[in-house]
Amino acid sequence: MMSSSPAVRVQDLHVVRGGREVLHGVTFDVPRGSILGLLGPSGCGKTTLLRAIVGVQHVAGGAVDVLGEPAGSPGLRRRVGYATQTPAVYADLTVAENLRYFASVLRAPRDDPARVIDEVGLGRHRDQTTGTLSGGQLSRVNLAVALLGAPELLVLDEPTVGLDPVLRQELWELFRALAEGGATLIVSSHVMDEAGRTDRLLLMREGGILADGTPEGLRERTGTSDLEAAFLQLITEKAGSLT
Ligand SMILES: Nc1ncnc2c1ncn2[C@@H]1O[C@H](COP(=O)(O)OP(=O)(O)OP(=O)(O)O)[C@@H](O)[C@H]1O
Q1: Could you tell me which of 96, 159, 166, 84 has the C-alpha nearest to residue 130?
Q2: Residue ranges of the ABC transporter domain (predicted)?
Q3: Which residues line ligand 1 (CB under 6 A)?
Q4: What ipTM, to 2 d.p.?
Q5: With contact defined as beta carbons under 8 Å apart, do 130 and 141 qualify?
Q6: Of 18, 35, 52, 58, which residue is least crowded by CB atoms under 10 Å?
């Protein structure tokens, strides 16, 4: 039976980093089995928000609940997969060795390394030393680690940076298949053309949410045909409402 409680519930979240408030009261829900896209310019707070959801960010106020528990609860460790922007894998191990190592740490099923290597399209590189991979291949190893154990929530910080359009499309097809299998995904990106592949978008700017809606709804609301234009339109509207 589908649970009606959201996978993630963020309420009035405030975060201070380096003595400065970088999230100013952010509120939203993410329904289970959906893909939320997080978009916004560099420095707007995307990574900070993802860190709060994973439970590795000290928060100054508000609440973050994940799969029915407070973010960062020990019980969530194996239910949430997190791929950081900077790959956190061992350069001197092969792709397969890295995956086997992290699978044993997470106590993931024995055949999981082979499954996730296939899912991210790295079959031909399984025995290559990770330090010799290209940037795009390295980020896919990082993504593969997050997929180990088939977590219910995947938090992916710019997983498609540096990938060519064909690979990006393949990864978005994988994300969609995972969501159809019941997983919830939160994916940050700089790239507006990826935004259309999400179920819902949060457009962020300067530590706040500029808009929250479906890609279609945002295009309609702004009367624009593409999301890049919609984003600019929303910024202009917001600037207008402040003067
Ligand atoms: N450790 C830190 N100490 C002080 N300030 C920080 C720290 N980490 C991030 N910040 C600041 O917090 C704000 C939000 O940063 P964050 O990394 O969340 O942005 P982002 O939207 O993910 O950017 P990008 O897309 O470039 O990764 C930025 O202004 C950044 O300078």
Answers
A1: 96
A2: 8-231
A3: 17-18, 22, 40, 42-48
A4: 0.94
A5: yes
A6: 18
Tell me which of 14, 24, 26, 47 to substitute to probe ligand 1's pocket, judged by most ligand atoms within 8 Å of the beta carbon.
Answer: 47
User: Domains of the chain: which residue ranges?
Assistant: 1-73+184-243
- CATH value of 1-73+184-243 in 3.40.225.10, 3.40.190.10, 3.30.70.3040, 3.40.50.300: 3.40.50.300
Whether 242 shows a pLDDT value over 80: the answer reads no
Contacts of 177 (CB under 8 A, 6+ apart): none
* Residue 62: Cβ-neighbour burial (10 angstroms; 0-12, 13-18, 19+): middle
pLDDT per position as a tens digit, 43-91: 999 999 999 999 999 999 999 999 999 999 999 989 999 999 988 899 9
Predicted pLDDT of residue 1? 45
Beta carbons within 10 angstroms of residue 197's beta carbon: 18
Is residue 152 a contact partner of residue 67, using CB atoms and an 8 Å limit?
A: yes
